[in-house]
Design brief:
heterodimer; A: two-stranded antiparallel sheet; B: alpha/beta; 16 helices; 12 strands; globular
């Protein structure tokens, strides 16, 4: 679809809007839908596009007001598309998502998993009573699911290790040295090899289309400038609030009030502390001011360094995302890329941070429970066996 | 994924042999209705799970044999070796020169710690042979002396060593008219300890299996070997390969994990029972035909009337009518001797397995109020038949089936304990009265939890 957007002129309006809705849907939906049967209806696609754009901060309210049946709005949709293109490396991101992977890959960070919205949580009516045994059942299922997942993961790794060590020396690329599972399958099963070839060929076609797009990109932007100019001037922008469901509004107000109270409390505490500190420090000489400034600066730098380290996933110098596994002989320096030991170290430190956070949250839960229990006299807590 | 079996005591070792034999024979059983490729996949899956490969091609059972005296272990080892089909590892067994007087406390407090390291090393070696470990089977009797005490200790050890691996204890529930006077003490101590350190307790009742041998298999002189073979058949019908999903043709990698996730996620409800249908002698098999409808109807009634075999089922017991409030439903069920289930796993094997109608098992009346059939009921279907049965069904259920027997044992043990009879045999070796009281408390809680379903 990509190169065709550039080629279409500003005519044939009625056919363009539905196509653009579909295009935006494919770009914005969490996983590119491979299977045509799984696509939602056009109205649903349009709704999803609107909400996704809104959550990303799309500034033009005219899009929200477009009808979802695809009868009009191609200009507004084009503007939305160009906005997405201008914001970030959209094309590269999409190509990376669907590229053919030949190696055995493993993620080194959780960013992709955390960023994707995941399946919608099942709506459970929490108004009625919930049997605690049902909750315990679900918790237990989660725990078993987790254990089974770990075991599967271990099996996967053990088998990968076997494939890698058995095929040592078979790869034409010396820096890799051994085959991946896909490559080994290629040799074992010719039909699989043909399928892989077809996938690689379609990937080539996609890459060529992307290159062609890059060649014509300038024309596209020049054209979009004219489109934008041709738009009627925006009326006073209504404040663009997300729609809150009715029940949620009450809870939201509660939360807002609690936040307000917390903020005031925090303010009061900070004021008293600051006043006390000033009182102690006030009498000191001008030299102190300089030291104070210096230490403030040092703290600020340390804070930003910590933040940067945390954002980069515990100090890993390499970019995020999946990495190809390459098994090298002990002692050899190997090529560029991460060492498994570094990744393990970074992941362990992340694990420690998360465990500390978990313990803190559990402590808070226990305190809250204790508070609730204290409010109800005559309660005896009986813990289940094994606790 | 592989399962490592720990065979404990006389009971565990004799049963363990029959289990491996049944699994092996079934996986090499000539199958008229399955393709060659399917058969090979089935064999490979079974083999990977329960056997490891040796150079000269004879599969070696993934098992560790433990007993405090050498007689039964030697018998088991030679039986396996003589069969020529498969064998046990040369260095997979641990035994002492002489037994030690059938004392639970001695097994738990003395044998356990004394031989902990040797047993642990044996298990470790077996685990290292696996590409990936799904979990452990621990086969042991519940009411025995040394074997049961040691078994409780070993299970606890496994919990510490392999906390992420799954553990299923295959427990042999003793005959109601047992001979050992302290068997009730042993039973409650074993059960309470296992409840804390195991993930699932799959209970095989000697009385029930004995009846199956007598009534269904028409065996006149029932030996332990006959009983153990029926038991092995039951286990095999559960753990032999099954397809991983409806419509898939790949065999499930981790049946133990999937079973546990479906049946025992709740820490208070860990007791499982198995029922099989059909069960009959080979001679009768040749003259019988079955329909899925008939098999499932009987199996369902076996479940709700707590029958252990397909003969002598009480067809009067019916599920209660819907719409009753849960409290009165509970007392009504009790009056009617209706066996309420928490969760059920149905495993169907054989011809036309996809045509079987399962609606009977999805009836909410069968289940407790806090778990809906969509969560409580699971089915695994495989076309490849099991053993010589053209169609067979196994039902693993977490239900109230053990409440009465358990209550009885706890009651008897408590009566003895109230007069402190024989308690000194235990305190002599470090099992204090406190431990008894803890066991009683835990098991009373289990009985109460199952009763208020």
């Amino acid at each position: 679809m990509w190169p065709q957007v550039g080629r279409r002129g500003p005519s044939r309006e009625a056919q363009k809007a539905p196509a653009l809705w579909r295009l935006l849907f494919h770009v914005l939906s969490p996983r590119p839908a491979d299977d045509a049967a799984a696509l939602p209806a056009p109205e649903a696609q349009a709704r999803l596009v609107k909400s996704a754009l809104r959550s990303q901060g799309y500034p033009r309210p005219a899009l929200v007001q477009l009808p979802e049946d695809g009868s009009q709005g191609s200009r507004e949709l084009l503007l939305a598309l160009s906005w997405l293109l201008a914001r970030g490396p959209l094309l590269e991101r999409l190509l990376a998502q669907i590229r053919v992977r030949l190696g055995d890959e493993m993620p080194v960070c959780e960013c992709e998993v955390l960023a994707s919205p995941g399946p919608p949580a099942p709506r459970v009516e929490a108004d009625g009573c919930v049997d605690i045994r049902h909750l315990q059942w679900l918790m237990g299922k989660l725990r078993f699911g987790w254990r089974n997942l770990i075991t599967s993961q271990q099996e996967h790794c053990a088998l990968l290790g076997k494939v890698h060590s058995y095929t040592r020396g078979c790869h034409s690329d010396r820096s890799l040295g051994h085959l991946s599972v896909t490559e080994a399958e290629l040799l074992r099963d010719p039909e699989g090899g043909r399928q892989l070839l077809r996938r690689l060929e379609s990937e080539n076609a996609r890459l060529e289309a992307a290159l062609e797009w890059r060649r014509r990109e300038l024309v596209f932007w020049q054209w979009m400038d004219t489109v934008l100019d041709a738009c009627p001037p925006e009326a006073s922008q209504p404040t663009f609030l997300p729609r809150i469901p009715e029940r949620g509004a009450g809870e939201l107000e509660l939360v807002a009030r609690e936040l307000q109270a917390l903020q005031e409390e925090l303010q009061a505490v900070v004021e008293t502390r600051r006043a006390a500190w000033e009182a102690r420090v006030g009498g000191w000489g001008p030299g102190w001011k300089a030291t104070q400034r210096a230490s403030e600066e040092a703290v600020r730098q340390e804070l930003t360094a910590l933040q940067r380290a945390w954002e980069r996933g515990g100090g890993l110098a390499q970019p995020h995302g999946p990495h190809r596994l390459v098994r090298s002989e002990a002692g050899t320096l190997g090529g560029p890329g991460l060492r498994a030991t570094e990744v393990i170290k970074a992941l362990r430190s992340q694990e420690a941070c998360l465990e500390a956070a978990l313990r803190q949250l559990q402590g808070q839960c226990r305190q809250e429970l204790a508070r609730l229990v204290g409010a109800l006299p005559g309660f005896i807590w009986i813990l289940p066996p094994g606790c | 994924m592989s399962i490592v079996t720990v065979q404990l005591g006389q009971c565990g070792n004799q049963i363990g042999f029959e289990v491996f034999d049944a699994l092996f024979i079934d996986s090499h059983c000539p199958q008229r209705l399955s393709s060659k490729r399917e058969n090979e996949a089935y064999q490979a899956s079974c083999k990977e799970r329960f056997f490891s490969e040796e150079e000269n091609g004879v599969p070696i059972a993934r098992a560790v044999l433990v007993d405090m005296e050498p007689k039964v272990i030697n018998q088991t080892l030679s039986k396996a070796a003589q069969s020529g089909r498969w064998k046990y590892g040369q260095h997979s067994s641990f035994c002492q020169k002489q037994g030690s007087g059938n004392n639970w406390a001695y097994g738990y407090s003395v044998h356990g710690p004394r031989h902990e390291e040797s047993i642990r090393n044996l298990i470790q070696k077996e685990v290292e042979k696996c590409d990936s470990l799904s979990g452990f089977f621990i086969i042991m009797s519940m009411a025995g002396g040394t074997g049961s005490g040691l078994g409780a200790f070993v299970t606890q050890n496994l919990q510490d060593q392999y906390s992420n691996s799954l553990k299923m204890n295959q427990i042999i529930w003793p005959y109601g008219t047992g001979e050992v006077i302290v068997q009730n003490y042993n039973s409650i101590l074993t059960l309470s300890h296992l409840y804390r350190s195991s993930d699932a307790l799959l209970v095989h009742e000697n009385d029930a299996v004995h009846k199956i041998c007598a009534k269904l298999m028409n065996i006149k002189q029932i030996s332990f070997s006959d009983i153990n073979q029926v038991l092995a058949h039951q286990l095999g019908s559960v753990f032999q390969p099954t397809y991983s999903a409806e419509g898939s043709f790949h065999y499930r990698r981790n049946p133990l994990g999937d079973l546990m996730e479906n049946l025992v996620p709740h820490p208070e409800f860990k007791m499982l029972g198995v029922r099989n249908i059909p069960q009959m002698s080979e001679n009768s098999l040749a003259y019988s035909t079955f329909t899925w409808a008939g098999l499932l109807k009987h199996l369902r009634q076996m479940l709700i009337s707590n029958a252990k075999m397909e003969e002598g089922i009480d067809w009067q017991i019916r599920p209660p009518l819907p719409g009753l409030p849960s409290l009165s439903k509970m007392s009504l069920n009790k009056e009617l001797h209706f066996n309420t289930s928490i969760a059920n796993l149905l495993i169907l094997r054989g011809k036309d397995v996809h045509s079987a109608d399962l609606e009977g098992f999805k009836d909410p009346a069968l289940y407790t109020s806090w778990l809906e059939p969509v969560n409580a009921f699971n089915v695994w279907r495989t076309q490849r038949a099991f053993s010589k049965y053209e169609k067979s069904a196994a039902l693993v259920s977490n239900s109230q089936f053990l409440v009465k027997p358990l209550d009885m044992i706890v009651g008897k043990a408590w009566n003895m304990f109230a007069s402190k009879a024989y308690v000194h045999q235990y305190t002599k070796f470090g099992i204090e009265e406190e431990d008894f009281l803890d066991s009683f408390a835990l098991l009373e809680q289990v009985v109460a939890s199952y009763c208020t379903l």
